């Protein structure tokens, strides 16, 4: 998980005439994509489209395949150059467990836009080729919702089934911190508008 200004990422990938700062960032993203390709090569993993090529195709607006994980990896590298350092949230069960938590939270009145399933696997804010069955997954949550999520989860913690309580408590704690960070950044005139989730 990391936090930052998603508008900067989108502008980097879609702007026709980039500023010197955007060109500098894009050079960093290209280097990061080349390193990702090298890691795949070392592990003997061949991608139909390389991560570096996927980045260029995203910039050109013409992906050459309908599905493939390289585009998702390229997008992540663009995010990494605009967002905070990554926070490792640890190992989590599969998506089905989050959907079970969704049902439990819904039962106690938590709004749909604050349910884990609504943001953990929501995908990027740009249309990318599908990563495939084994590909990584992306989720995004608007940073201003972090405070509301914390309050909603904490208000129902004692009523949740024991098997869901620890996960909800962990999310509430993470989002309490993110809400405080967002408020601090706003006072400094910064715009970290998105919390970004990455599942490999």
Q: Explain this structure to me?
A:
- By secondary structure, the chain is mainly alpha-helical.
- Helices cover about 55% and strands about 10% of the residues.
- The protein is built from eight helices and three strands, in the order E-H-H-H-H-H-H-E-H-H-E.
- The chain has helices at about 5-15, 20-40, 50-60, 70-80, 95-105, 115-120, 145-155, 160-185, and strands at about 1-5, 135-140, 195-200.
- Strands 1-3-2 form a three-stranded antiparallel β-sheet, covered by helices on one side.
- Helix 2 crosses helix 4 (about 70-80), helix 3 crosses helix 4 (about 70-80) and helix 7 packs antiparallel against helix 8 (about 160-185).
- The radius of gyration is 18 Å and the shape is globular.
- The termini are close together.
